[in-house]
Amino acid sequence: MKLVSNFWRKLCKPSNAAVGVVIGMGFVGGILFWGAFNTGMEATNSEAFCASCHEPIVNEIKETIHYSNRSGVRAICSDCHVPHNWADKIVRKVQASKEVFAFVMGNISTEEKFYARRKHLALREWQRMKENDSQECRNCHDFDFMDFSEQGQRSVKQHSTALASGEKTCVDCHKGIAHQLPDMSDVPGWQ
After folding, report:
1. What integer best gives the mean pLDDT of the chain?
2. DSSP per-residue letters across 68-124
3. Residues of the chain where predicted confidence (pLDDT) is lower than 70
4. DSSP string for 120-171
5. Backbone angles phi, psi at 151, to 5 degrees
6. Minimal CA–CA distance to 170: which of 114, 144, 131?
7. Do 92 and 61 lie in a common domain?
8. Together in a domain, 75 and 99
9. Is the residue at 92 inside a domain?
10. Domain that residue 13 falls in
């Protein structure tokens, strides 16, 4: 009790009170900022936010296994395009701010403009996913938990080879798994 009494006495002095108020305001301000920041981060991970610029893409995923499947598990845009761990998520959000800027500037503001740039956007996204070893895919799909007896012969061969060699990542073979592929006929080495 004496400790609290001494603390209160020091806090009541004008100079100490100002320091206490500033520290208290900083603490409350920090909590408010953190709450607003996290709320904003989660809002920009919503399917509605993505559809505000990428509506044709969000609609085409409705035709894939990632949207409707026998297990009832559904992936949304951020599951595949935003890393789940915090530091990588922040990096990706900063990168994605260029996409928001491009939309605001009119580069992809219409469906026609978006489809004209689709190949460029896809190549850039595939490169990003290759560089991070398809981290977003691996949030849900893990080689350690794959039941090879439930997969087709070709899939077993490819997955076991990829697992053993570590040379390939998910996006090397699964481009177009959730989206229609753009016309890649003029890209050298496209198989």
Report:
1. 84
2. S-TT-----HHHHHS-SSHHHHHHHHHHHHHHHHHHHTTTTSSHHHHHHHHHHHHHH
3. 11, 14, 16-17, 163, 191
4. HHHHHHHHHHHHTTTHHHHTT--GGG--GGGS-HHHHHHHHHHHHH----HH
5. -100, 160
6. 131
7. yes
8. yes
9. yes
10. 1-43
Residues 153-178: tens digit of each pLDDT: 888 888 888 767 777 888 888 888 88
Same domain for 39 and 92, yes or no, is: no
User: How many angstroms separate the CA atoms of 187 and 69, rounded?
Assistant: 32
**Reported pTM:** 0.73
pLDDT in tens, 23-38: 889 999 999 999 999 8
Tokens at residue 28, please? 């409350």
- Cα torsion at 100, 105, 109, 114 (round to 10°)? -80
Neighbouring CB atoms inside 10 A of 54's CB total 21
